[in-house]
User: Fold this.
Amino acid sequence: MKNKIHIVFLSVSLTICVNVVFAQRDSVAKAIVLAQDQNIAAEVRVKKALEIIDNSITHAQSVKDPFAWYVRGYIYKEWYKTFEPQNKKSKTRLEAMVFLKKALELDTSHGKSFSVTSNFHYSGQIATVTLDFDPKTIRQILKYLGATFYNDAGSLLDPDNYPAAIENYEKFKECMLIAEPNYNLKAREIEFKNALATVYEKIFRSDIKMQSQFFGMTENLYRQVLALDTNNWGANYNLAMLYYNYGVDLINNMNVTDDIVVVDNITDESTALFKKALPFALKANALKPDRREVLVCLMGIYFSLYEWDKSDEYKAKIALLDKEK
Assistant:
């Protein structure tokens, strides 16, 4: 999985004017103003803002207020960005997503923006602050979080961490579909499933007997990719190799002392695998005729099926390709 999502860092637009209007201090507004105050070190302002919003959200008037949940989600996102950008399993990032989702669920403006005006003590004076609540901004923040989930999913794709990769990828999808319900996931689905399949195959091949369940898991993922795009070269080639290599493994792992019935069964199973590999190898060859690895695969498949003439045909193509290079 090579392609990362470009992340745009967002800020909230604030207008602050000081006058003599006195009103009850709005701690929710104060939290976001503090989080945005560039005169205070990020580590300090974000910690203080998070403490304020966590206290504020427990108040009865805040529990069902979309603006309060938006502010909480925004500050949690800032905490993640400030303190945990390398934490691929960040709980704070997950909570930011949940809070922003809740803000959209509570919003009754039908996607329209509105302003919130509050008064509170700030920097030794009474401030009247006008803040914009804009669902579009929430959706942009969710896209930012989604991008971080996707990028982390890619970096976690290995035999030890793939469950966390799957979790991050699912959160990516959730963020993007909340932010943009019509978001087209097809390209990302293909990319992630292909990458995850290679991880599963690596686990399978580490011990084909003890990890046999990963054969079916790998096969299933490649078939899912091909259901999305029948012309995906990688899925066609890798599925062909999955079948072919397993067939070869079965033959190579036979013992000379095996009963004739056992030998016949293994031979039948391996032949079935070679036959399953063939159409996918042919498809991969049709898509990219000059890829040497596909020609080698086809040569091996036909050889294993005792179709010597066709095997020799691909052997000749390999020799010609090597000569041209």
